[in-house]
Write a structure and sequence with these properties.
Elements lengths: L8 E5 L5 E6 L6 H17 L7 E3 L4 E8 L2 E8 L5 H19 L11 H9 L2
Antiparallel strand pairs: 1-2, 1-5, 3-4, 4-5
Protein name: FUZ/MON1/HPS1 first Longin domain-containing protein
């Protein structure tokens, strides 16, 4: 994992669009609206026969998306549009691994992010 990769924002959302964790450094956005939007985009792409969306790039930002089947979650990181795909994916895999380690004994779909846990994820940014 490249430590030079800077994640400006991290979302962990359920496949229904419910945001479990959102940590941002500068942008203010309705986290539930954003989660629902990304799930809708992904559903649309699959409906028309395309692959799941893994990256969305705009002039000012890049969203890198990691889909997890166990647990069924979507990990999304916002970074600079010039951030390396390989480095961003490595960082998201590390975040997913930490999430799995922390929540491995929790009941299915019951994730409660307390301040200590949130601090853990922020340290990975």
């Amino acid at each position: 994992m490249a430590s030079s990769v800077l994640i400006d924002e991290l979302w962990i959302i359920k496949p229904d669009g419910t945001t479990i964790l959102n940590e941002r450094k500068d942008l203010t956005i309705d986290e539930q609206l954003f989660g629902g939007l990304l799930v809708a985009i992904n559903s649309f792409l699959i409906e028309i026969g395309l692959e799941q969306c893994q990256t969305i790039i705009t002039e000012n930002a890049k969203l890198t998306i990691l889909y997890s089947t166990s647990p069924s979650l979507i990990f999304i990181a916002r970074s600079s549009p010039i951030a390396s795909e390989k480095d961003m994916n490595a960082k998201l895999h590390a975040i997913r691994s930490t999430f799995m380690t922390h929540f491995k004994n929790w009941a299915k779909d019951q994730y409660i992010i307390d301040k200590k846990t949130k601090a853990l994820f922020i340290s990975l940014l």
